[in-house]
Specification:
heterodimer, A: 680 residues, alpha/beta, five-stranded parallel β-sheet, five-stranded mixed β-sheet, 26 helices, 47% helix, elongated, B: 315 residues, seven-stranded mixed β-sheet, six-stranded mixed β-sheet, globular
Chain lengths: 680, 315
């Protein structure tokens, strides 16, 4: 099977050398075979990918994952085209050592949507699809065999040796005396004509010449008898399985259940892309029995250290392949990637990070001036002007706007808890002094540990600065188990760096904050637009995610956010409308939300709630944090207003109710307006 | 090589339409609320004029004109089969003129392939420019998300299992979402974009390029692989397609060819003409991103009309 052609190389060559973006190609489908091999990076430990997904295994494997999880790259790496490259390098024995022949099929190339409708019954179409599928796969198998044989320096077609075996698999004798491959192609063409013409003629004339599975498994058996393929497993690598309809997937499940020795199945699909595990006979294939499942992005999330290492190696390989870094430096490059991206120095008091606040006076500090105005307006505890002046003075930290911001946050907490504010200010002042001096045990220090990033975010916002998602480690975090996400961030960042005239991946030159921010923003927009599949669910999920993002943003930038690092919510599904539940499932399916398995025990009830984290890649769209810590427990009304489109009109009202507790003057629940939204 | 430019095309005013249309035996037009569809229908003086109501526009029973053909089922093939039952078996006798302005692309493509590829029946096509679009460059034509990307019925071809050098030609339109979905449906294929240049109006080419950038991730490293054909000339479109496909076949090797006409209706006609004439029984097909509906009125005014004499060629 010929590898993809040089047009990709033409693309690279058409771009000026100095502007070549090492991350231009973000999808495995856009690589030719040599590029797949060149950019291949294995998991860093424990036997690599092979230990998890072994094409030699007799047990079928479903390899699932979100868009960009690396499924296609992995499956193509296992394919016969890549094996052929390895054979050319190391000899035909390589194939026997690898122990399998990988037959890669993208289910999208079957154009399977045509096997329906046009005035014909489903049963007829299902039978035709099964026949077509067998012939298509058998053809691919013979092509793969020829490709591997040819790669070993042989000039004949090895598939011709099994022609008599294959021709005998057809129930109706064929008039063809050509090779098995040409015979299969002739039958496929006949079927295509018939399927094509039915739209015009309304008649479907097809002769099915073999029973389901016979041609496919018979071809495997024929090839297995050849000494060249002795002992090999023929691994059928079926990618984009989600494209097949439920009935079509049922046929594949039947093949998995009834497979013969020497045949293996590796089925790649998006998470939730497997519509059924049932077979044509009505049985259900079971996890642990007929198949196993691995979810790539979940795997990466569970082993974040390994994933980090994997990402670094991936990027290092790309930089070397693009000629930006000499090959001899590849080994050390993963550990130095951080140096290529500017990040402000992180210090205890946040000086470099808050350098944009140059005025150290009270009137130059927006947090203080706002607090002062609020105290003057609302006069809690009948504070006098003198009291207010004293409170503000005690909270003022000329040397550290960050410490000062936290002090203001703590006074808001005290206000909410109806403490004596003058005393609270004095206490906070003492603790802040202790913290500045290096103390770590006070409540102030502990709160700073939790809320530091939120306080910095609030300062950035107050001073009209953009939020920061900077540095290579942050980019890895944004991708959250989807390597393509990382590559897209880097691609866009690189583009902006070129536009801004910056050096890229040159020692001593870090890509600027501006370029990184713009790149992250573009990547986040891509994620929201491109990740959903087709159908109405994608649009519903996008809109719900936007509502959730804006809701969390309002909480994060309130005067007194109740939780730190707000990007996660919990809710009780049983209280929600069906619409809301369906949209939540879509959000998870499209990777907009990450669902934790264990859930979250509600604070005030004993129910186990579902915990959902906004995908880190989306967080920059709403200035949200990317690391998970605090969890917002959504009420049923809030959850419905966010996730049920038909109730979204109530979102402003539920947000107002929630924010009353979090914004000055912190009306308690008993004081809040009794809002009955009738959303449930 | 076939030269499609020998087919005649001419510009005509509304008044001019009256006189030339007297010779037409049947005139078909897809009903929508745009001036350029309705006023043209009124101006045409064919022996028989038929409104066809497509369900994607979402018209109520009361909206549709009396005597119009209303299809009760969804797919493009069923639409035309029902029309034949409605119009009578002799509807193809004589000169056919089709106003392609308001037709959904799948129905239009199916009709062209059926008339030229199966029935070997030449016909006249009519297309009218508006004076402007309802919201200028922000005009939305399709309504709702893409439901499925699939081959248009009757245009499914005979694709081969060797998919190592597949190619997708996209006739670029304004809707980046449609471009994205089509590109994603054939991830393995290299993508070549055909832009309408000269465009129908001065800045439309630039606008369509800007829009296509939004789909650049889906288009992949080929998002700058472009070819150009005049937006209002189906014959030049067919010629450019022919030439460019041949270039791919001889230079890069071509296994399976996919065509997706998302641009102007004259370009859609050009894609369908090329497919019906040269690609029907080859590893080629026409694919399309189907949405649930379309806007009933997207343009204002009547500018110029184009008449295209679409011939049958022997491939």
């Amino acid at each position: 099977m010929a590898s993809s052609v040089a047009s990709r190389n033409t693309m690279a060559a058409s771009t000026a050398e100095e502007l070549t973006n090492p991350f231009e190609v973000t999808k495995a489908t856009d690589f030719d075979d040599s590029q797949i091999a060149a950019t291949w990076v294995d998991l860093p430990r424990g036997g690599g990918f092979r230990s998890l997904i072994d094409p030699r295994s007799p047990v079928a494997k479903f390899v699932l994952g979100g868009k960009g999880s690396g499924r296609t790259h992995l499956m193509r790496y296992y394919s016969s085209s890549l094996q052929a490259l390895r054979i050319r390098e190391r000899g035909f024995d390589t194939l026997l050592k690898e122990g399998y022949a990988g037959i890669y099929v993208n289910c999208g190339t079957l154009n399977a949507e045509r096997f329906c409708g046009k005035g014909q019954s489903d049963d007829k179409w299902n039978a035709i699809f099964a026949y077509y599928f067998d012939l298509w796969l058998a053809s691919r198998m013979l092509m793969a065999a020829d490709e591997l044989w040819t790669a070993g320096g042989n000039t004949d077609h090895i598939s011709d040796r099994v022609s008599p075996d294959i021709l005998s698999l057809f129930d109706v004798s064929s008039q063809s005396f050509g090779s098995a491959l040409s015979h299969l192609r002739d039958i496929l063409r006949e079927l295509d004509f018939a399927v094509n013409d039915v739209a015009m003629t309304r008649e479907l004339r097809v002769t099915i010449r073999s029973s389901p599975g016979r041609v496919l498994f018979g071809t495997t058996e024929g090839l297995s008898r050849l000494s060249a393929f002795n002992g090999l497993r023929f691994a059928l690598l079926l990618d984009e399985f989600e494209i097949l309809s439920e009935a079509q997937q049922r046929y594949v499940n039947t093949l998995i259940r009834e497979k013969r020795p020497r045949v293996g199945f590796l089925v790649g699909a998006r998470s939730f892309g497997v519509k059924t595990f049932s077979t044509l006979g009505g049985e259900i294939n079971k996890e642990g029995s007929e198949f196993e499942t691995i979810v790539l992005d979940s795997l990466h999330l569970r082993k974040s250290g390994d994933y980090n290492r994997f990402c670094r190696s991936l990027v290092a390989r790309r930089l070397v392949e693009a000629g930006l870094v000499p090959p001899e430096e590849e080994k050390n490059l993963p550990d130095t990637l951080n140096t290529y991206f500017f990040e402000p120095l992180r210090t205890r008091l946040g000086g470099p990070e808050t350098a944009f606040i140059s005025d150290s006076s009270i009137d130059g500090r927006k947090s203080l001036t706002e607090l002062r105005s609020q105290l003057q307006e609302h006069r809690p505890q009948s504070l006098t002007d003198g009291d207010i002046h004293n409170i503000v003075r005690l909270l003022h930290r000329p040397e550290s706007p960050l410490v000062e911001k936290l002090a203001v946050y703590l006074i808001y907490r005290a206000w909410h808890q109806q403490e004596n504010l003058t005393e609270a200010a004095a206490r906070i002042h003492q603790e802040a002094e202790d913290f500045v001096a290096g103390g770590t045990k006070s409540l102030f220090a502990l709160t700073m540990g939790h809320f530091r990033d939120d306080m910095l975010a609030q300062l950035l916002r107050k001073h009209r600065q953009k939020q920061r998602y900077l540095g290579f480690s942050k980019f890895v975090e944004l991708s959250a188990g989807l390597p393509r996400g990382l590559i897209v961030v880097l691609k866009q960042t690189f583009r902006w760096a070129v536009f801004n005239g910056e050096s890229r991946f040159a020692s001593g030159h870090a890509i600027s904050e501006d370029s990184q921010r713009a790149g992250v923003r573009d990547a986040a927009s891509w994620f929201l637009q491109d990740l959903p599949g087709i159908g109405p669910n994608g649009a519903h999920a996008q809109r719900a995610t936007e509502r959730l993002g804006s809701f969390l943003r309002a909480l994060r930038f309130s005067d007194k956010p109740s939780e730190s690092s707000l990007c996660t919510v919990s809710l009780d599904r049983s209280t929600l409308s069906e619409n809301a539940q369906s949209v939540i499932d879509s959000c998870v399916e499209f990777s907009f939300l990450l669902r934790t398995i264990s859930g979250h025990k509600g604070r005030n009830t004993r129910t186990r709630k579902q915990k959902l984290q906004l995908h880190p890649m989306l967080c920059p769209l709403w200035d949200l944090p990317t690391s998970r810590r605090g969890v917002v427990e959504l009420s049923a009304e809030e959850a419905v207003a966010i996730f049920d489109e038909t109730k979204a009109h109530g979102l402003d009202a539920v947000r107002r109710v929630r924010l009353r507790r979090m914004n000055v003057p912190f009306r308690l629940a008993a004081d809040s307006e009794n809002v009955s939204l009738n959303l449930l | 090589m076939i030269d499609y430019s020998i087919c005649a095309r001419s510009e005509v005013s509304l008044d001019g339409l009256r006189s030339i249309s007297e010779k037409w035996d049947i005139f078909l037009s897809a009903y929508n609320k745009s001036d350029r569809v309705q006023r043209v229908f009124d101006a045409v003086a064919a022996r028989r004029k038929v409104w066809l109501v497509q369900q994607e526009y979402g018209f109520d029973k009361t909206d549709a004109p009396d005597g119009a053909f209303k299809c009760s089922v969804g797919s493009e093939a069923e639409f035309w089969h029902e029309f034949v039952a409605f119009a009578g078996s002799d509807w193809m006798d004589g000169t056919i003129c089709v106003d392609i302005t308001g037709f959904m692309r799948p129905e239009l493509v199916f009709l062209v392939v059926w008339l030229l590829g199966v029935k070997k029946k030449p016909f006249i096509a009519l297309y009218t420019d508006p004076t402007h679009y309802a919201n200028q460059e922000n005009t939305v034509f399709s309504k709702g998300p893409v439901i499925v990307v699939r081959q248009i019925a009757g245009c499914e071809g005979t694709h081969i299992p060797d998919t190592g050098a597949d190619c997708l030609f996209i006739g670029m339109g304004y809707d980046d979402e449609l471009v994205r979905r089509v590109a994603e449906s054939k991830e393995d294929a290299r993508k070549i974009q055909m832009y309408g240049l000269p465009s129908l109006a001065a800045d439309m080419y630039q606008e369509s390029v800007l829009r296509s950038f939004k789909a650049s991730e889906a288009l992949g490293p080929w998002w700058e692989e472009r070819c150009f054909a005049p937006a209002n000339d189906p014959f030049a479109t067919a010629n450019v397609l022919q030439e460019r496909v041949q270039q791919e076949e001889s230079g890069n090797r071509l296994t399976n060819l996919y065509l997706s006409p998302l641009g102007t209706k004259p370009q859609v006609l050009g894609f369908a003409l090329y497919f019906a004439t040269e690609r029907r029984r080859t590893p080629s097909s026409i694919i399309f991103p189907f949405t649930s509906g379309y806007e009933q009125e997207t343009s204002k005014g009547v500018a110029r009309s184009w008449v295209y004499n679409v011939e049958c060629f022997a491939a």
